[in-house]
Specification:
The structure is a single chain. The chain contains 13 helices and ten strands. It has 346 residues and is α/β, with parallel strands linked by helices. Strands 1, 2, 3, 4, 5, 6, 7, 8, 9 and 10 form a ten-stranded mixed β-sheet that branches. Helix 9 runs antiparallel to helix 10 (279-291). The radius of gyration is 21 Å and the shape is globular. The N and C termini lie far apart (56 Å).
Amino acid sequence: MLISVIVPVYNTEKFLHKCIFSLLNQTFSDFEILLINNLSTDNSINICELFMHLDNRIRLINNKQKSITSSIKVGILESRAKYITFVDSDDWVKPIFLETLLRLIQTEDYDFATTQFIKVYPKKLINEELIIKPGKYLKNDIKNKILPYFLNNSYYLTRLLSPSRVTKIFRKDLLERISKHLNDHISYGEDVLTTLYSLIYAKKIYISQGNFNYFYRYNPSSVSNDKSLLFNTNVNSYFKEILKLSKKKKYLKGQMYNDYISLILNYIYKISTNKRITYKSKLVTLQKVTKHDYFILSYRNGSFKKFGAVNLISLYLLKNKRIKIFLFIVSVFSSFKRYFSFIKSF
C-alpha cells in the first residue's frame, strides 16, 4: 500500500459523506483511509461505520483524546503505507488529488511535497496564494531560504510557506521521526508545528504551483476562527511550544513574535466586531489579552514596520492601554463597512 489518508473526525456529520465519497472517487486506488474519531457526539461515528463496511480500504479508529494533534499521532502510528497525507472531515478533494501528490513526491523521492488549496466561502472560491518560489529545496535551501521566514515573513498574517498539512504528502518515516515532538494537548497551531518539524528534519522537499485539488471549507465555528477567550489560551499554548523550540533554533526568534502578534491582533479584530459580545466583555477580554506576558514580550521584540498603518495604529492603542479608543474606532469603521456593503447591494 502506498498512501494512508488520515481523516480526523469530530462532529462533522453535515460534511462527512462528501469528504469520504471524494476520497473513494480517486483515480489512484492503492490507498487506505484512516477515520480517526475524536469523541464525536453527533452522528459522525455512525457515518464512519457505514463507510467502513462499504469499502475495506477504510478503517475506523476511536481516539480517546479530543485534540487534533493526538489524532495525527494515532494516524501515523496506525498507517500501513509508505506515504501519508491528511484530509479534514469537513473538506473534499478532486479525483486527481492522490495521484498528483504521489507523482510529486516520487519524482525524486522527496521527504514531503506540497500543493495548494481552494478556500471555499459561502459565496465564492479563492485559490491559495503561493508566496514562496516553487521547486526543489535541499537541506541547505530549507535552512537558509525557508525556516528563517516560515512563521512570518515580516508582514501581517503572512507566512512564507503555508503550514497546512492537508495540501502535503509526507514520507511516513519522516512523520514518525517528528511525532515525538508533537504535544498531544495542542489544539491550535498543530499544522504549523507539524510542518515546522518536518522542515527541520527533511533533507529534500518539493513545492509545486497550480495544483489546486483540495477544497478547504471556511468554517466560522472552527478552532482557528474561534472568537472566545479560549482561542487566546490556545494560541498561548502554541506559542509556548514555539518559544521552547526557539532556544535551540535561533532563527525562530523575531519571526515568532511577529507571528504571535499577527494571530492575537486578528483575534482581537474578530472579538471587537462581534455583535453578540457585549461591550463590557470585549473590554475585559482585550485587557486580559494585552496584559499577557506573551503579548508584552512579542510587542517588545517583534518588528512590525511592514504590518501596515491600520495594524500599527491598533497595536499602539492596545499596547498603551487605549482600549476604549480602539473599540470606538473599530465600531466606526465597522459601521462604515456595513453601510457601503448595503449600498453595493442595490
